[in-house]
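Troubleshooting: if your tokenizer reports a length mismatch, compare against these two reference records.
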Amino acid sequence: MKIYAKQIFIKALLLYLAVAWMIFSIPVYAEDNVYEPLQEMKHPADNPWSKEKEELGKMLYFDPRLSGSNWISCATCHNPGLGWGDGLPRAIGHGQKELGRHSPTIINSGYSPLQMWDGRKKTLEDQAVGPIGAAGEMNQDYAELVKELKAISGYVRFFGEVFGKDSITMDNIGKAIATFERSVVSKNSSYDKYWQGNKNSMSKNAVNGMNLFFGKAKCSICHNGPAFTDGNFHNIGVKQHGPLKVDLGRFNESKDDFDKGAFKTPGLRHITRSAPYMHDGSEPTLESVIAFYNRGGDVEKNRSPFITPLELTAQEEKDLVEFLKALEGEPIMVAIPQLP
């Protein structure tokens, strides 16, 4: 009953905000907003950080032996060289079969309260092992994987150092990979430098784009907070592409009609590196994403009340893209590990 009441409250609040925005249309400028830097990454109490655990997780992340075919690793779909995604509209899984959704970047995923496009994984640890056992993705039998890793002396030693004796389990595999993924953080962007006092770190066009982002373009309604995501799920009116004829998104988990076609709001830090965009990879560039929002989406059914035509000029669209570029942080460097 409490969960149902909370859902009703959230829906009412969203509708109220959307209507208020359209009625009052008061310009909002980034200069009037409080800057929120990314906080230090927090690790769960039952999975505390250690350098050794992070290094073990990195090995597992890049190891194709975690898949049933011994060809696919976590890095296959979440490649550091491709913005920690795969550069494809939709992921390619077991047997070279095209899947229904775009591989999301794992950058800043450690800040997200729910994982996957539909939020079906409640922790990063759970998300880390989910694709390993999924038939369409890595197609690995969990018991077989544990048996295989136990036969590799290097992994026996590394797991022992991190978790103790006889510790090669799926639970610990997930903990190690999640620990590594929490190290993948985008920080110290031009946007951060701007708010830290270097007003020359962003171009005039990017600053104008920032003010549009927090004002006329309404982006910050959903893309807010330090990671530029509300962590929530919205139907933004995407026309379905790819092998799936219908994808109900969050509805598959919540069974709430309000969530039909709703997908998680992606964070925007380092977003320039993870094209294409949307849950189905249907928008190839940031320019096409801005154009999509400017026309108010493509599908009206069950669309969020926040998504309406923006009436942005061609220059304003360009300035928004310049601001998104200013959200790119320092290069996220990672050395490919030597596998045991």
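Reference record two:
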Amino acid sequence: MEGRHSSPKHSAAPVRRAVNYPESAPEPKATPVRRVTNERIPREVQVPKRNAMPAGSSDDEPVYSRPKKKKQSGNSVLRMIIMDVLMTCMILVIFAFFHHVLPRLTAKNTVIHPVSTVSISPPVSASLEITPAPVVSSDIPDDPVETEPVPVEVDNRTEWQKKFADKFTDEIVRTDNSYSSPNVSVTIDTFSGQYNGYYQTYYVADIYVANIENFRTYFANGQYTYYGAQDAEAMARNSGAIISMNGDYCNNQKFGILVRNGEIYFDDPMEFDLCVLYYDGTVETYSPSEYVPADVIAAGAYQTWKFGPRLLDSNGKAMTNFNTTYVVEKEEAPRSGFGYYEPGHYCFVVADGRQNHARGMVLTEFAQLFEDLGCVRAYNMDGGASSVLTFNGQKYNIPSGYRELGEILLIAETADVTG
């Protein structure tokens, strides 16, 4: 007879019974969740390092590692482009500083004196006549008859005064757009309207002079100063100019051939077209291969300009290919130019631009204008905001901006005539 508490030798798996806890009994504690604190984590529970296999783990167990960040190729390319742009800008700024700013800071206001003067003297007026020596005769009468000398009228006018007699006046005559005297004649015509299909405004000053010395140049503040500059109206008044026009911005360079009022500052070859006004009143324009500085000076250079380019060929026809930069040639800009008809007869031409009343001209249009005016030589001066024409000490055109000038071309009376 089996005992009451006896059990069979092979019993089934025990069945887990639900345990009924009394209401007042506390609930069983759950496995605590460890919070992240600043406390040191025990070595046995630390998270293994990236790609490190925990001790005692198998290949099937997960490896603790940080997730890899995705490559942001688009942002990297953008950053590289920005860095390249910034680097390029930095290089340009450094270049501009050492090439433009630093030379101005170190050499600005340096006075440059002429090295010599043109050896040739101004030509003697053709009106001066040589009186022949009296003939001595051996047949002298015993009682010579005394006769009163016949007065001889002497024409003291210069060759150009005789040739352009209808342009000069015995006294100074001024109007709003003209000036005449025994030595100078200036008339300014203003054109405003359609020219070559575009609305343009330009000014043509027709100029006659009795003597080459009525045509002069003037540096800012009265002396050639490296990067020197002065207001155009102040320069005109200080120089006694009847009419003036901006020049070729020559004082930003220390090379090339430069002769002003017969004084030589530089006599080097250069890559720009050259314009020369000689003492005899003739004007020639040259490409770099067509002249030698020493020959130009020896021929009697009175003024030279080196901005360019020349605008008319040797036959007085408008050029279409120019020795200059693309910007100077193609930009629709204000322009200033010097034209030559014959000795003693010249013109200043200034075209407004970059404004409602004037588009501005490209170089081919400007060259065509000088051909239309009948000039046989023409030369382009500095343009843009530098294009300024003054008359009686006041601006006559409407410049596109304000810019002080380094020098001007001007027409003035000689010392013996005041106005």
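Descriptive notes for reference record two:
- The radius of gyration is 46 Å.
- The first helix runs from residue 73 to 107.
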